[in-house]
Write a structure and sequence with these properties.
Length: 244
Amino acid sequence: MNIRKFRIILLIILIIVSVYCFVTISQMAHHSESTSDNTTLTHEIIVNNTTESLGSVEVIRNVGNPNSKKIAYVIGVHPLENDTHKTLLKVLLSSSNLNYCYDIYIINVSENFSSYGQLLPDDEPGRDSGQNLALKYVYPLISKGSYELVVDVHAHGGAYPYDTFVFSPIDGALAESYGRNISQSTENISYYNPNHTTSGPYLTVPLNQHGIPAIYYEENSFLSQNIKDNHMLELIHAVDNIKF
Ligand SMILES: [Zn+2]
């Protein structure tokens, strides 16, 4: 075989290998697309432009395994803390192979709210609006929704002894044991009840009082996005592995 023939054969082999790799990779990509979760996901506006003009409430249903037990996440009760709300949406919606079925209740406040690092303390009217929307529109739906657990996602400015923690606003409730379970099964999430919340009476306290376990997730707003993503991933996996 002369050098020219050898080069041609080598070129043909290279082309065959490239085509094979391309086909395999695109099949893999298509496979993961067609088998990913969330094919039954729905998006519903619960209330928009309320008469009080507080904002809107929406829900994304059936994230994860739609045939399994249901868990609710709530974001937006305190609009100022929206960096952590966005993190929950991003990480939960991109999680695959989840065991349970998740509904995400999203509160969008239209009134003013400040932003960490700019207008501390958080005393804009939007804070009350988020709480009022939670009590009026989210609480009734969750209390009728057959949920095993509710996680209300918040952020803080670093005034607590832990950056990242979960807690039940009522000591001794079933929610406390779920919260402690999450803390024990994660590296970076502590269990810590600050014993005072402004939003408790608007969502997590009445839920617990009516037999629906509801916990807070609190994240330090000043951590890097990368760390917040990792903590959120820990929360989502720990919740997804609780035995109900
Ligand atoms: Zn909050």
